[in-house]
C-alpha cells in the first residue's frame, strides 16, 4: 500500500468519512480521490437505510415476527390471543393459560421443556404475557404495578385501579377491562399487576370459565395450578429482587409486605419462599389442590407442584386473613433437593436460566 | 440520524414489551444494515439465510438486550456476525462478493425503481471492493458505515479494542481508496467517465446516482 498517496486520508479524515461527515481540508489534488471514496461509502451506506419505504415490509420480516411471537408465548402459545384486540376476561384467561402452557407448568416432562438457549427473560415475558392476557381476569392495573402477579385481592370484584393502564403493558390485572394488546411484558419484568380482583371470584369459577372457553390443557386443576404457579413466580421474583437489594417499586414492595404480613416479615417470608420451597416441579393438577389459596396448614404448593415441605405460598390479598408465612407446615424432609437455593436456578423453573 | 435513533430506541423497548408493530419497526430499521454487513462476510447467495438465522436469535433474545439504538444495532450485529462466522467456518472461506456481474445486476433487477437499481449497483460494487479487503478491515469499515455503529460500539461488536478497530478501519479506507483509484469502474465518480455499462447506466442516471448517493449518504450515514 502506498501510504504517501493517501496522506490526505489521515485518521481524522478517515473518521469523518466513516461518519459520513463532509470533508474539509483535503487539498484539491486529492479532492477527487476523497470524493470518490466518500461516494463509495455513501453507496455502501445508502442501501442500509434510505431506500426502505417506511411502510414496506421487508423480506424475512414475517419469519422474524413469527420467531418473535414464539419467543413471547412459548411453545404451543397462542399469539393471536394477545394480538391487538380486546380480550374479554375469560377468553384472555384461556388464552393466557394455553399460551402459557409451556411456561408455567413447572417441572413438566422434558418433552415440554422449552428449547435450549432460551434465556430467562423471555420466559418471564411469556409469563408476563400470560398474566397480561388477564389470567386472573384481565383488567386495569392494580395494587401491584406491572411486575408481580401475586397479590390477589378482595373477594369482591373491586378493582383497585392504580395508574394508567397502557394496553401494551402486560399487567396481570384481573379486571375485565384490560385489553392486552400484544404487549407481552413489562420490560424485563415478569409479572403483570394483579388487582385485588384476583381473588375476586372463586378460582373455581375462573377455572370453570376457562374450561368453557378453551382449555386444551385439561383440567380445572391445571388451570389453577398454572395460576398459582404464576403467582408463585411473581412472589419469588419479588423476593429475589428484594434479597438482591434491588429497589422494589412501591407497589411491589407493598405486595411483598402484604404477602409477608408485615414489612418486618418480608425477609423471613422471602427466605422461606425462596429456600423453603421444593415443589418446583409444578405438575399440573398433581395436587388437585383446591381453589383456595388460603394457607391451609399443609401448604399445598402454589405452583402446582408436588411436595412442598413447608414452603411459602404466595398469599393473595383476599379480605380474609390467611395464614402467615412463618411456619412451614411440612418437615423439610419432604423437600426435593434444590440445585440451588435461588429459585431462579431450578431447572424446571421457567424463570431459570438453566432452562436454556 | 438522531431522530431515527430515538425512534429505534423506543421501538426496541416497545418490542420488548411484546408490541409486534414495534418489532416490525425494529426489523425494518435494522435488517438492511445487518444484511449489508453479513454480505461482506458470507457473500450474496447466503447472506439472506444467515441474516434470517440471526433474526431468529435476535427475536428470541430480545429481552436480554438493554441499551439505546446504537447498542442495539451493535448487539444485533454481533449476533449476525456469529452466525456469519459459523457459516464461514462451515464453508471454509470468505467468499468474494460481486466478482460476478450477474450477481450485482440481479440484485439491481430486484429494485423497484431506476434509482434503486443504480443504488444497488453502486452498493454492490462497493461491497465487492470491500470484500477484497482483509476481513478485519472490511468489518471495521462496514460496521461503521453500513451498520451505523459508532467507534466504541463497533469495537464491542467485534470484541476488539477500539484502537485496533479504528486502525483497521483507517487501513481499510486507504485500501478502498486505492482500489477505487485503480478501478476504472469506480463507483459513481464525479470525475471519471463511465466505462461501458449495462444499458441503464446513462449519464442522466449517473447524475441521479451521484445526487441520490450524496443525498442518501448525508441522510443515512450515521452522524454521531
TrEMBL record, chain A:
Record keyword Transmembrane present: yes
UniProt feature, compositional bias: Low complexity: 93-109, 326-356
Residues covered by region (Disordered): 93-123, 142-231, 243-356
Comp. bias regions, Acidic residues: 211-220
Record's keyword terms, sorted: Membrane, Transmembrane, Transmembrane helix
Compositional bias annotation for Basic residues: 110-123
Transmembrane segments: 123-144
Biased composition range(s): Basic and acidic residues: 198-210, 243-267, 274-301
Signal peptide: none
Keyword Disulfide bond: no
Name of the protein this chain belongs to: Extensin
Lineage summary: Bacteria, Bacillati, Actinomycetota, Actinomycetes, Kitasatosporales
UniProtKB/TrEMBL annotation, chain B:
Domain RNA polymerase sigma-70 region: 27-93
Entry GO terms, CC: DNA-directed RNA polymerase complex
Domain RNA polymerase sigma factor 70 region 4 type per the UniProt entry, residue ranges: 127-176
Keywords of the record: DNA-directed RNA polymerase, Sigma factor, Transcription, Transcription regulation
Matching Gene3D superfamilies: 1.10.1740.10, Winged helix-like DNA-binding domain superfamily/Winged helix DNA-binding domain (1.10.10.10)
Alphabetical list of InterPro entries matching this protein: RNA_pol_sigma-70-like, RNA_pol_sigma-70_dom, RNA_pol_sigma70_r2, RNA_pol_sigma70_r4_t2, RNA_pol_sigma_r2, RNA_pol_sigma_r3/r4-like, WH-like_DNA-bd_sf
Cited SUPFAM superfamilies: Sigma2 domain of RNA polymerase sigma factors, Sigma3 and sigma4 domains of RNA polymerase sigma factors
Keyword ATP-binding assigned: no
Family (UniProt): Belongs to the sigma-70 factor family. ECF subfamily.
Protein name: DNA-directed RNA polymerase sigma-70 factor
Organism the protein comes from: Streptomyces fructofermentans
Amino acid at each position: 500500500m502506498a501510504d504517501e498517496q493517501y496522506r490526505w486520508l489521515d485518521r481524522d479524515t478517515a473518521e469523518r468519512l466513516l461518519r459520513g461527515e463532509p470533508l474539509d481540508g483535503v487539498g484539491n489534488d486529492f479532492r477527487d480521490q476523497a470524493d470518490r471514496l466518500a461516494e463509495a461509502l455513501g453507496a455502501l451506506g445508502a442501501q442500509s437505510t434510505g431506500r426502505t419505504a417506511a411502510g414496506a415490509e421487508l423480506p424475512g420480516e414475517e419469519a422474524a415476527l413469527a420467531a418473535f411471537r414464539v419467543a413471547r408465548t412459548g411453545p404451543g402459545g397462542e399469539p393471536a390471543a394477545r394480538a391487538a384486540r380486546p380480550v374479554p376476561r375469560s377468553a384472555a384467561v384461556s388464552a393466557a393459560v394455553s399460551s402459557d402452557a409451556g411456561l408455567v407448568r413447572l417441572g413438566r416432562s422434558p418433552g415440554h421443556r422449552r428449547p435450549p438457549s432460551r434465556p430467562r427473560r423471555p420466559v418471564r415475558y411469556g409469563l408476563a404475557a400470560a398474566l397480561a392476557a388477564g389470567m386472573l381476569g384481565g383488567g386495569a392495573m392494580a395494587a401491584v404495578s406491572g411486575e408481580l402477579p401475586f397479590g390477589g385481592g378482595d373477594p369482591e370484584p373491586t378493582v383497585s385501579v392504580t395508574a394508567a393502564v397502557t394496553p401494551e403493558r402486560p399487567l396481570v390485572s384481573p379486571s375485565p377491562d384490560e385489553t392486552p394488546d400484544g404487549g407481552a411484558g413489562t420490560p424485563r419484568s415478569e409479572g403483570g399487576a394483579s388487582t385485588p380482583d384476583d381473588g375476586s371470584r372463586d378460582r373455581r369459577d375462573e377455572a370453570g370459565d376457562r374450561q368453557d372457553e378453551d382449555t386444551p390443557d385439561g383440567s380445572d386443576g391445571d388451570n389453577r395450578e398454572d395460576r398459582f404457579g404464576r403467582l408463585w413466580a411473581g412472589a419469588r421474583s419479588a423476593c429475589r429482587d428484594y434479597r438482591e437489594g434491588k429497589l422494589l417499586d412501591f407497589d411491589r414492595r407493598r405486595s411483598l409486605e402484604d404477602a409477608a404480613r408485615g414489612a418486618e416479615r418480608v425477609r423471613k417470608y422471602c427466605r422461606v419462599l425462596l429456600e423453603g420451597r421444593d415443589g418446583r416441579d409444578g405438575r399440573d393438577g398433581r395436587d388437585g389442590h383446591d381453589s383456595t389459596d388460603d394457607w391451609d396448614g399443609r401448604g399445598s404448593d402454589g405452583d402446582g407442584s408436588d411436595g412442598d415441605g413447608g414452603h411459602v405460598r404466595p398469599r393473595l390479598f383476599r379480605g380474609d386473613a390467611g395464614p402467615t408465612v412463618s411456619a412451614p407446615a411440612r418437615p423439610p424432609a419432604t423437600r426435593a433437593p434444590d440445585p440451588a437455593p435461588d429459585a431462579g436456578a431450578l431447572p424446571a423453573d421457567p424463570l431459570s436460566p438453566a432452562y436454556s | 440520524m438522531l431522530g431515527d435513533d430515538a425512534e429505534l430506541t423506543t421501538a426496541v423497548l416497545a418490542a420488548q414489551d411484546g408490541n409486534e408493530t414495534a418489532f416490525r419497526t425494529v426489523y425494518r430499521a435494522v435488517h438492511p444494515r445487518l444484511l449489508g454487513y453479513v454480505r461482506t462476510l458470507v457473500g450474496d447467495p447466503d447472506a439472506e439465510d444467515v441474516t434470517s438465522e440471526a433474526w431468529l436469535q435476535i427475536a428470541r433474545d430480545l429481552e436480554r438486550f438493554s441499551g439505546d439504538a446504537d447498542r442495539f444495532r451493535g448487539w444485533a450485529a454481533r449476533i449476525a456476525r456469529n452466525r456469519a462466522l459459523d457459516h464461514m467456518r462451515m464453508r471454509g472461506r470468505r467468499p468474494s462478493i460481486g466478482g460476478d456481474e450477474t450477481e450485482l445486476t440481479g440484485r439491481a433487477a430486484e429494485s423497484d425503481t431506476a434509482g434503486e437499481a443504480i443504488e444497488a449497483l453502486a452498493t454492490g460494487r462497493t461491497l465487492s471492493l470491500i470484500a477484497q479487503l482483509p476481513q478485519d478491515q472490511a468489518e471495521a469499515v462496514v460496521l461503521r458505515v453500513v451498520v451505523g455503529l459508532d467507534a466504541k460500539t463497533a469495537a464491542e461488536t467485534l470484541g476488539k479494542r477500539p484502537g485496533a478497530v479504528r486502525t483497521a478501519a483507517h487501513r481499510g479506507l486507504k485500501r478502498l481508496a486505492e482500489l477505487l483509484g485503480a478501478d476504472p469502474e469506480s463507483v459513481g465518480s464525479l470525475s471519471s467517465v463511465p466505462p461501458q455499462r449495462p444499458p441503464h447506466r446513462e449519464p442522466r442516471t449517473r447524475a441521479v446516482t451521484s445526487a441520490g448517493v450524496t443525498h442518501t449518504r448525508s441522510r443515512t450515514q450515521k452522524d454521531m
